[in-house]
Amino acid sequence: MISLRKFLGFIFTTSLIGIFLTVFFAITEGSSFLAIGVLFTGAFPFVLLIGVPVSFLSDYLSKNLKGIQRNIVALLIHSIFGLIAGLVISNLFESLFLVGVAIIAALIFWLVDEILRKKI
Description:
Blueprint lengths: L1 H27 L7 H26 L5 H27 L3 H23 L1
Helix pairs in contact: 1-2, 1-4, 2-3, 3-4
């Protein structure tokens, strides 16, 4: 069940990030909503290679905690790794904007995973 939850979390998170970025760029730069495919393609590997392992790590590190305490620890783990990933990625692509995107993606992944945890 955990693998199904992580897979669904990956799919939902990638979709939400693609939609978020498309709306953001449509508003700020007037780009077309047709760019959503490009943004999905860009988000896909990062969520898969960074987000999913961090989510497994979060589950492992917070497995003995319950309730709000587990939620807070999981949120901190996702946020910290989102910040680290954002800093590394922004250094590679020379765009500080990517730090914010990585943190938002980490928060979205955490939120989706917590919702799925309760539903599945």
